[in-house]
Specification:
Blueprint (H helix, E strand, L loop, with lengths): L4 H21 L2 H13 E10 L7 H11 L21 E12 L7 E11 L3 E4 L2 E4 L1 E8 L10 H4 L9 H17 L1 E6 L18 H21 L3 E2 L3 E6 L1 H15 L5 E7 L5 H9 L9 H10 L16 E2 L2 E2 L3 H5 L8 H7 L4 H4 L2 H5 L10 H10 L9 E7 L7 H14 L4 E5 L7 H15 L1
């Protein structure tokens, strides 16, 4: 006779009643929200990286360090850790897709995408007991790009086929960091790339579009990882360089001021903080190393309904470097997602007076009656503004940066401190491109300690 049978039957009935109570205690709204969340996002395994196909980023750091003239001692970082740390490496790269509002404010939706890098293993054995491995989210907004082939959901499918070393550096670093630091690395595609390629023009300097798409991607990624059985820590880390710094700072502020998610650390490098002042200075230069950003910023605002002024008031229609453009559609076509920044560098003159209309170059940015007033007002409205940040916040900037001006980033740092915010500023070696290396290494070291 089984003496436990009545007890087992009673336990079963009690458990059943509890499940019914829990089910009916969930509101209809909560259930619907869960259903909507599942419907709006999807996940696909892009690739897996293990010992057989993993390439340590250390060699690339060393080669680029020599190329750019950095001394060996300046490359002390978590990336210099023993190769034994990579023993048994097994990192999955997932593509995450979800819906987000169109950046033009029309109310329509687009499908946005990005990747999540996370070690394969969800559990570990501690004192003969299996427990969940808690992963820290590391949200990485990418360096500026203009080609769809550079979007994370496209390029991370085969990292080792990326031709340029500096473009390979971030994915290889993040794979290594995900494994050794137990990070869940989120890398979003900017709207207009990845799954939304061709559905919108990239909102280059539109902070609201960046914040909405970043947050929707973050929520979708968390939802999918938790569905797979991963445990995620509550506070996240955010980092970005160049356009990525603009997006990262805006996103951290958005999360904190709206109480959406706790941010533990924010690292920004090569930051274009004060957009109106940046354009005013850049338009008057005798030479600018990256002229592609003028039309990129213009079309990003115009096609997403932030400004209405025509191209013929901003951009010259002349023979540019390697090509002659008969109409503005041909200039606009340069930004169709098929051209890299390097190609655009050769397609456009790096002398602003040959690229921009003289009226625009000479326009007073503070004249409320000017035809350009709305243009400059939009730039001011989308510039980074201070807040009383709760997160730890560090800014890094190359001391020789003549593309995204060092003094303007420092000016924002002063504004942020005067407002009451907490931030540090670190001058690093290099100009805008070469300054990316010390930024990434310093961020790796700092975030390693915050993991």
């Amino acid at each position: 006779m089984n003496l436990l049978k009545p007890f087992q039957k009673g336990l079963f009935i009690t458990a059943s009643i509890m499940l019914v109570c829990i089910f009916f205690s969930c509101s209809k709204e909560e259930i619907n929200n869960q259903d909507v969340s599942q419907q709006l996002s999807e996940v696909n395994l892009l690739s897996s990286v293990n010992e057989k196909n993993f390439q340590s980023p250390n060699q690339i750091y060393s080669e680029l360090g020599k190329k750019y003239g950095f001394k060996t001692e300046e490359f002390v970082s978590s990336e210099r850790s023993s190769e034994k740390l990579y023993s048994g490496i097994n990192v999955n790269i997932y593509k995450i897709s979800t819906q987000s509002p169109h950046p033009d404010g029309s109310g329509q939706s687009i499908t946005i995408s990005g990747v999540v890098l996370i070690p394969k293993y969800k559990d570990r054995i501690v004192w003969f007991k299996k427990e969940k491995i808690p992963y820290r989210i590391r949200f990485v907004t990418p360096f500026t790009y203009t080609s769809n082939s550079s979007a994370a959901s496209v390029s991370y499918s085969n990292i080792f086929s990326i031709p340029d070393e500096i473009d390979q550096l971030l994915p290889l670093t993040m794979i290594a960091q995900a494994w050794t630091g137990k990070f869940a690395v989120f890398v979003p595609d900017y709207p207009g790339f990845g799954d939304s390629y061709g559905d919108c023009f990239p909102p280059f300097v539109n902070k609201d579009a960046h914040n909405r798409s970043n947050y929707d991607f973050l929520k979708a990624g968390i939802h999918q990882l938790e569905n797979m059985g991963y445990e995620l820590k509550d506070e996240l880390l955010i980092q970005g360089y160049s356009q990525g710094a603009f997006s990262a700072i805006q996103f951290a502020k958005y999360l904190e001021t709206n109480n959406l998610k706790k941010v533990k650390g924010l690292s920004a490098g090569g930051t274009p903080a004060l957009l109106d002042k940046f354009i005013v200075k850049a338009r008057s230069e005798n030479f600018h190393p990256h002229p592609f950003f003028f039309p990129y910023a213009y079309y990003g605002m115009k096609e997403n309904n932030l400004i209405s002024i025509g191209e013929n008031r901003i951009i010259q229609l002349n023979k540019f470097a390697t090509g002659t453009y008969n109409n503005y559609d041909e200039i606009r076509a340069l930004y169709d997602g098929s051209n890299s920044i390097l190609k655009l560098q050769f397609a456009l003159p790096n002398i602003p007076s040959k690229l921009l209309m003289s009226d625009f170059i000479n326009a007073n940015p503070n004249d409320a009656n000017s035809d350009y007033a709305n243009f400059f007002n939009v730039l001011r409205a989308n510039s980074i503004s201070p807040w009383n940040n709760k997160c730890q916040f560090k800014m890094f900037h190359g001391s020789l940066d003549n593309a995204v001006y060092t003094n303007q980033a420092y000016e924002y740092y002063v504004q942020h401190r005067n407002y009451g915010g907490n931030v540090s500023f670190d001058y690093t070696l290099g100009e805008h491109i070469t300054g990316y290396l010390p930024f990434l290494l310093k961020t790796n070291d700092w975030f390693w300690n915050l993991r």
